[in-house]
From TrEMBL:
Pfam families linked to this entry: Aminotran_5 (PF00266)
Organism annotation: Pseudomonas violetae
Domain Aminotransferase class V: 45-366
Superkingdom in the source lineage: Bacteria
Protein name, entry field: Aminotransferase class V-fold PLP-dependent enzyme
Xref: InterPro entries: Aminotrans_V_dom (IPR000192), PyrdxlP-dep_Trfase (IPR015424), PyrdxlP-dep_Trfase_major (IPR015421), PyrdxlP-dep_Trfase_small (IPR015422)
Protein's UniProt keywords contain NAD: no
UniProt entry keywords in alphabetical sequence: Aminotransferase, Pyridoxal phosphate, Transferase
Amino acid sequence: MPDNTRRARDELFWKTFADRYSNEPGPINLENGYFGRMSRTVVEEYQRNIELINRSNSVHVRQRFEQGESLEIRAQLAELIGVRAQAIALTRNATDSLQSLIRNYNRLQPGDQVLICDLEYDTVKGAMRWLARYRGVEVIEIDHQHPASFDSLLASYREAFARYPRLKLMALTHVTHRTGLVMPVQAIAAAAREHGIDVILDGAHALGQMEFNLQELGIAFAGYNLHKWIGAPLTLGFMYIAPERLADIDPDMGEIHFPLNDIRARTPYSTPNIPALLTLPQVFEEHLAMGGSAAKGARLNYLRNEWVRAARNLPGIEVMTPDDPRLYCGITSLRFTRHEDQQVMVDRLLNEYNLFTLVRSGAASGPCIRITPGLTTTAGDIALLIKALDQLR
């Protein structure tokens, strides 16, 4: 058994890890997909940086942060994800990154088509529809059949590529926020290239719980969060553009603070959360010290599989995410099939079992309840979830 797989089951190890976090009394949080948590040492470092910048103000920022620290942090991030520093620009979050990529993509002409699916983030859908209003393109939206499989997902896109020959650009979500479905990005991107279609990848939920290589995936444009599974303060994310494709994304609204050949010109220029950025070296150090995405992903998948394995055998419970290891991560959704209103069941999970979960709607397959364990979730928490599902179904 690989070390990460064996360690994923080691409750004593993860209890030691969980002790690094402060807990607020209240419900058991099974909605850890919204944003992640900072360890106490990261919080302390963040507070020190807030006090430092508050004391030194623009003297430190002009003399040290802008001239050196920001570049060092950018280089550390690039090394973490295995790309060149020139390929990334720090942003506030994945959404900002994706909106910038979509609105500044310059290879569209009136009459071209762009593609989205039912599982995309609503803001991404909105940005693609904005292109229709202001660039004169047509938005094509497809729905994925349920239950999904690797082959069915790839076939959905191949069919769309063949049916809509004017497609030039598509959004693709690595880990869908509605159900937790992991898209076969590499296969879909390869099929898109065969038809001359560019992909903008939403990686908001992928970074930190999945290992991936952007070049192997065949992705030229992507947006990511640092405040979910990496453990950074809120307001941090980044944009990725393959250096050879930089010219296909215009500077953001004529941005002039950086040269045309600098990816940072593709983001709005503003005063960032400097204390949060200065905290990133501590965040990266802790992420790597515990084994990085491989260790975190193994633990989250173990917790996911524990409740899914039990739920598959419960009449009245439908798990919305397949068990193909290529298509799931720690985030997985379910539905009470004998209860029409899933929000009522979320309320009952909270009020009767002290379990905090979330309804996600918008998928063609219907509303579902998203279950997202975190790095401080215990096997006991999962056992309580299984008990609740059995008694409420």
